[in-house]
Amino acid sequence: MKYMLLLLFLLTCVIVAQGQTQDLLENVVITSQKKKTQVSTNENGELHVNVSPEDVLKFKANGLVRYSDFGARGDGKTDDIDAITAAHAYANQYGLLVKADEGATYYIGGKERTAVIRTDTDFGTAAFIIDDTEVQNRDASIFMVSSSLKSFTLEGITSLKRNQEKINVPLPGTCLITVTDSTLRRYIRFGLNQNNGSPQTDIFVVDKNGNVDMDAPIIWDFDQITEITALPIDEKTLNITGGHFTTIANKAESKYDYFRRNIAIRRSNVLVDGLEHRITGEGDHGAPYRGFIDIRDCSYVMVKNATLTGHKTYSTIGAAGKPVSMGTYDLSVNRALNVSFMHCTQTNDINDRTYWGVLASNYSKNLLYDHCTLSRFDAHMGVANATIRNSTLGHMGINAIGSGILTVENSTINGRSLINLRSDYGSTWQGEFIIRNCIFVPESGRLTSASLINGSYSSQHDFGYTSYMPERITIENLHIDDSNHPEGYQGPAIFADFNPQMTDDSYEEKFPYVRTRKVILRNVSTASGKALRLSDNPFMFKDVKVDTY
Question: Does pTM surpass 0.90?
Answer without folding.
Answer: yes
